[in-house]
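USER:
I wish I could look at a protein chain and see how it folds. I am handing you a single protein, as its sequence and its fold in token form. As I understand it, each token names a local backbone shape. I hope you can help me see how the letters and the tokens relate. The protein I mean follows directly.
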Amino acid sequence: MIEYILKAFLVCFLGFFPASEIYVAIPSGIALGLDYYSTVVWSVAGSYTAVLLIHYGYERFSQIPQVKTWLDRFSSQRFRNWIDIYGIGFVLLITPLLGVWVVSVTMKVLKMDSGLFLVYSFITVVISTVGLTALTYAGIDLAANGYKMIIGVTD
């Protein structure tokens, strides 16, 4: 049991860590021997923890008047209109490419609606984690059994 907890914690931490996120967490979880469902759950938990940390940290940090003044310089009405129209699509498409840290900070600075951002970032993290896990599984299966397809061996 303690071994599972340590593996789960490591996968969760790798999912949280900005440089690796799910792209290192998923293969690491599988390599550590976690089942695919646990790998997905703990990778999502780590990545989404980063989203929540940035969201609530930004809210607390922006309560400081000097910081609020400085952050308001990065946002304009034009960007707010753009975020209102295209923000959800941006979150859905760009999060898997840039990562949750970059997109979370960007959406907070550009003042996307917090409720929508939290919901759509969770959906994006889940979809990209499941997709990457499926691709990793397919790659492992191809590496393990691909030679059989090439040379025509049947079991």
Remarks:
- The mean pLDDT is 85.
